Amino acid sequence: MQVIYEDNHLIIVSKRSGEIVQGDKTGDRTLADDVKQYIKEKYAKPGEVFLGVVHRLDRPVSGLVVFARTSKALTRLNKMFAEGQVHKTYWAIVERSGGDELPASSRLLTHWLTRNEQQNKAYAHDHEVSGAKKAQLRYSLLAHGDHYDLLEVQLMTGRHHQIRCQLSAVGMPIRGDLKYGARRSLPDGSISLLAHRIEFEHPVSHQQIIVDAPLPDDSLWSKLSAQIKW
Fold this sequence. Notes:
It is built from four helices and eleven strands. It is α+β, with helices and mostly antiparallel strands. The chain starts with a strand and ends in a 5-residue tail after the last helix.
C-alpha cells in the first residue's frame, strides 16, 4: 500500500495487485484493514478508526482507491460516485488483436453485459438481451509494442468486470487475464490493468483533486509508457 493523498476527510492509496479492498469469502486481510492500521499508528488514534469504502477494484487490478475518513465525506462521496461526478482513467496493456487497426483517436465501445455469479464472470453481447446491462467505455491508443499495446480507457458506465470483458469482446484481452481470454498468466497473478488517474471535487473543501497512480514495477509497463508523447 502506498498513500498518494490524504487529509482530514479523505485518503487515496495505490493498491497492489492481489490485495482485496474489502472483506470477501477468503477471509484475507484487506486493503481497508491496512489503511485503518496506517491511520491509527500515524495519528496515534485510540479505539476503532473510521474508514468508509466508496468503491472497489478487482483483486488482480492495481491502482487508485479512495477511502473516506469521515461520515460526512463518505455520504457525499457515495453520492458523487453514484452520479458519475468522479472521473476515473484506466491504463491497460492488451494483447495485439491483429494488424495496426487500433485508433490514434478514441473509440467508443458499447455492449450489453450479463453476469454469471457462479463463474464470477461477465459476458458481452452486441445487442440487448434479457437481464443485460448497457456498458460503454471509450479507449485510445497510447503506445504500440511488438506484441502488446497500451490503451487509455475512460468508463462511461460502471459494470462488473466491464473493461476486462469489453476489451476481450473486441479481440484485445488484457495481458495476464486468463478469465477473459489472455494467452498466458503473469507470474504474480496480476493482470495489466491500472486505475491510473482519479479526478473529482473534494466533497468538503470543494478543491479539485487530481492524482495519478505509480506504474506497476514491470518492464513492459516501463517500456510502453516511455513511448507516450504528452
